[in-house]
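Good morning,

Attaching, inline, the backbone tokens for the sequence recovery test we're adding to the shared suite. The designed sequence is right after.
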């Protein structure tokens, strides 16, 4: 087993609008579509399309839409540990998209209906997680389940989204911890306005015990830091290629999935971040999530357009 993704699965209701509404404002959508989403589902598909062998661990509602499983299977995602929760609905996300930006409201539903830790210990999910090269989780499921996952994984990646207060014991297991600019600010208490500032914040997290940190910076690319010893770190800045963004929905998930596949295959953190940057740049150039995520061949071809990385001391 290469990659296990534990996380959320949602029905996405996406509205294309001319601009994002302000507080209390009603605007008309030009188009509405429904597709499969959730950060867990997105990252599983992104990892599989990037070339990974992927199993998905998730909770869905009773009698889910059969297209949910069919869609994931078509992308090569294993569903042995996707469990239906009696009496629950599958999660739903309401997304407004305008000029490449988005607003999202999520009803978690079955995503927050998990068994006790003792029951999980004897589950198929526990076997899959223990066998995986890399295990990925996010925070659209209960933190208790994320902590359980981290304890059972050989190498654990946490995409700390949406932003949440996290225990130090969990952060010390993240290799790497992946955050965007706002999530990084939530963990450090300060907003970074340059890649160097983001690097310094990620560096502080590593010196405080996190094994590695990757911070995505949108059009500015990403920074990465890894801890080489109790008081030493190494890292740098990976710029992003210049592209026109059509739809940023799920771009961070494309990055996480591609990075997980690269690391599971034995790549180092800098090369994995470059691979993930290429994947995310391709993903934002098309509307939607799963259909927009690039295949391994496309990512490999796009690597030549990714600018050289710069190491930071």
């Amino acid at each position: 087993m290469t990659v296990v993704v534990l996380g959320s699965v949602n029905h996405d209701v996406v509205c294309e609008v001319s601009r994002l509404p302000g507080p209390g404002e009603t605007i008309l959508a030009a188009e509405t579509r429904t597709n499969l989403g959730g950060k867990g589902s997105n990252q599983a598909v992104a990892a599989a399309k990037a070339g990974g062998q992927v199993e998905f661990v998730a909770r869905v509602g009773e009698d889910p839409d059969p297209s949910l499983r069919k869609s994931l299977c078509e992308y090569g995602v294993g569903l042995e540990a996707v469990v239906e929760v009696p009496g629950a609905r599958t999660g739903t996300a309401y997304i407004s998209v305008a000029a490449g930006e988005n607003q999202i409201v999520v009803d978690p539903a079955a995503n927050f209906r998990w068994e006790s830790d003792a029951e999980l210990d004897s589950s198929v999910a526990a076997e899959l997680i223990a066998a995986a090269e890399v295990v990925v989780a996010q925070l659209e499921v209960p933190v208790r389940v994320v902590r359980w996952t981290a304890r059972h994984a050989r190498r654990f990646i946490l995409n700390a989204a949406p932003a949440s207060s996290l225990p130090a014991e969990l952060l010390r297991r993240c290799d790497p911890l992946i955050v965007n600019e706002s999530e990084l600010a939530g963990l450090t208490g300060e907003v970074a306005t340059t890649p160097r500032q983001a690097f310094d914040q990620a560096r502080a997290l590593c010196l405080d015990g996190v094994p590695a940190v990757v911070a995505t910076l949108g059009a500015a690319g990403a920074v990465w830091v890894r801890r080489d010893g109790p008081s030493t770190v190494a890292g740098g800045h990976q710029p992003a290629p210049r592209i026109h963004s059509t739809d940023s929905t799920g771009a961070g998930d494309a990055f996480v999935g591609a990075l997980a596949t690269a690391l599971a295959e034995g790549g180092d953190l800098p090369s994995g971040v470059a691979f993930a940057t290429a994947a995310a740049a391709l993903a934002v150039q098309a509307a939607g999530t799963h259909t927009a995520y690039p295949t391994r061949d496309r990512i490999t071809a796009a690597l030549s357009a990714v600018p050289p990385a710069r190491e930071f001391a």
